[in-house]
Amino acid sequence: MEELSYEKCLDHLERAAYLVLDDLQAAHPDVFRVERHSDAVGVCGPSPSWVWTGLHPEDSRAQEVDWATDWAAETVQEMLVELYSADSAAATWPACPEHAGAHPLTAAGGRWCCPSSGRAVSVIGRLRDVD
Question: Are 66 and 12 in contact (CB under 8 A)?
């Protein structure tokens, strides 16, 4: 695999974060935003008091497309649990269509997958296409 330049790696990380937020918009519009700085790309919560969670191009696996996308998905899921800790339905995102309400899908290899069956439900960024 050809190593990306620092700037291209930031572009890559930013695209990965936006894929996850595209999926999130239907269930939780405008809750999180992506921020790009000169040295990192991160996901921010809904208020200034939220900690910015970022990924730096120096991180050893940041250039791997699926890994960066999985990182962004896991980060958003963790932040949702914190934000909606009193509302388990809202914190269980994205809900597994095979086991409604039982658990959220997990990010694996750039896809949303059922953690019980391992079945891929959608490519991250295309969740809206799932019935």
Answer: no
